[in-house]
Amino acid sequence: MVYRAAAAALIVYDITDQNSFDEVDYWISELRSKGPEEILIYVIGNKADLESCRVVDREVAESYAQTKGVFHFHSSAKTGQGVEEIFYHICQEELKKSSIKETGCKNRQSTVDVSNSTNSDGNNGGHRGPCRCQ
């Protein structure tokens, strides 16, 4: 499978479908047995925009993820809710891992400042909002 060299894996279940949540355990086991030892595993409850139709209890899912030692987030592929947060978290965790490997120090804080990013043309490549290119 593709996850043999993966840094992170996202296991996505549908919060409106108990069967999809029941399959999460299989995928965690699969990743732990065949994936890299240091893989970051994320369990994502999708369809957060359908909260009124939820059948998978939020607290149960979060408690389950905690007992398995994996990260748990909620998202909506339809609205984009939570998606940026998930990928930001993956990046932060990868920075921590690479910092530990390079320095051997777990206490070093790694950050990336993208607030004033510019590209080679001097345009504001990291700016959110209207394009400032001419």
Q: What's the helix and strand layout?
A:
Blueprint: E1 8-14, H1 18-22, H2 24-34, E2 40-46, H3 58-68, E3 71-74, H4 83-103
Parallel strand pairs: 1-2, 2-3
InterPro entries: P-loop_NTPase (IPR027417), Small_GTPase (IPR001806)
Pfam family, one: Ras
Family: Belongs to the small GTPase superfamily. Rab family.
From the N-terminal CA to the C-terminal CA, the straight-line distance is 45 Å
Number of domain modules: 1
State Rg: 18 Å
Low-confidence stretches: 117-121, 123-129
CATH superfamily annotation: P-loop containing nucleotide triphosphate hydrolases
SSE string, helix = H, strand = E? EHHEHEH
Strand order of the largest sheet: 1-2-3
Mean pLDDT: 83
User: Structural class, please?
Assistant: alpha/beta
CATH fold assignment: Rossmann fold
What profile does the largest beta sheet have? 3 strands, parallel
Secondary structure tally, helices: 4
**CATH class designation:** Alpha Beta
Helix content: 25-40%
Measured by DSSP, the beta-strand proportion falls in 5-15%
Number of separate strands: 3
What is the general shape?
Answer: globular
* CATH architectural grouping: 3-Layer(aba) Sandwich
Family: Belongs to the small GTPase superfamily. Rab family.
InterPro entries: P-loop_NTPase, Small_GTPase
GO molecular function: GTP binding; GTPase activity
Keywords: Nucleotide-binding
